[in-house]
Request: fold
Amino acid sequence: MSVADKIFIDNVKDILANGVWDTDLEVRPKWEDGTPAHTVKKFCIVNRYNLAKEFPIMTLRRTFMKTAVKELLWIWQKKSNNIADLDAHIWDSWADENGSIGKAYGYQLGVKHHYPEGDFDQVDRVLYDLKHNPASRRIMTNIYNHHDLHEMGLYPCAYSVTFNVTGNKLNAILNQRSQDMLTANNWNVCQYAVLVHMMAQVSGFEVGELVHVIADAHIYDRHVPIIEKLIEKEPYDAPRFVIDKSVTDFYAFTPDSFSLEDYKYHNDEVKFPVAI
Reply:
């Protein structure tokens, strides 16, 4: 059984058995028909993935790895906030008439700040410190900028990453304020697992752990029966993650730099509505 499957199953079983419903509250998200999208949630779930042992992708259903990587590179490499730069439609609902999601995600990572060593945006500062200051406890990014929230199409969900070098291994903590467990949980885990692999390779480290901290881990009301059916399936073993070892420049990675060997998953299509 994939570790990612086990963690997901344990998480959603806990949420369904012990979570708290918000049906007595007014909620922002809506279904396409205008109905309020209520959730059952647990506060503060913390999951650990040892990337040196296994790539954390689910097999209960397919996680579309290449599209997930495209979004990751759109944010972390291109530092873009325009869907014209993204070869996917996952952000279409939050973009304005010009294709912009406002001052969110990639925009925040691309803003330059002044340091004694020079001017860096958040990504380049991480890359600089991993090479020059690996013992630092200040290697992190944060895109939850209160000054710009009013100009964002969507407040950042996954908003902060802390990188930490321990021995010869690069570890990371992903902080997420909100997580739609069915729609986005393994999507985000796979993305940031890839990011740790990227950062480690170009900085001369081995991969260590990815720790995922979720403040509000929730399941939408219309997703409950879908998840109950999903976790009845028998998981497969995790595939082998392959990264192009010739890449030494963070900005030289492409979606084709990564692949999965022997990725077995349940291929019956899982369709579900998405709350906006």
User: Anything to note?
Assistant: DSSP finds six helices and eleven strands in the chain. The chain has a mean pLDDT of 97. Residues 181-203 form the longest helix (23 residues).
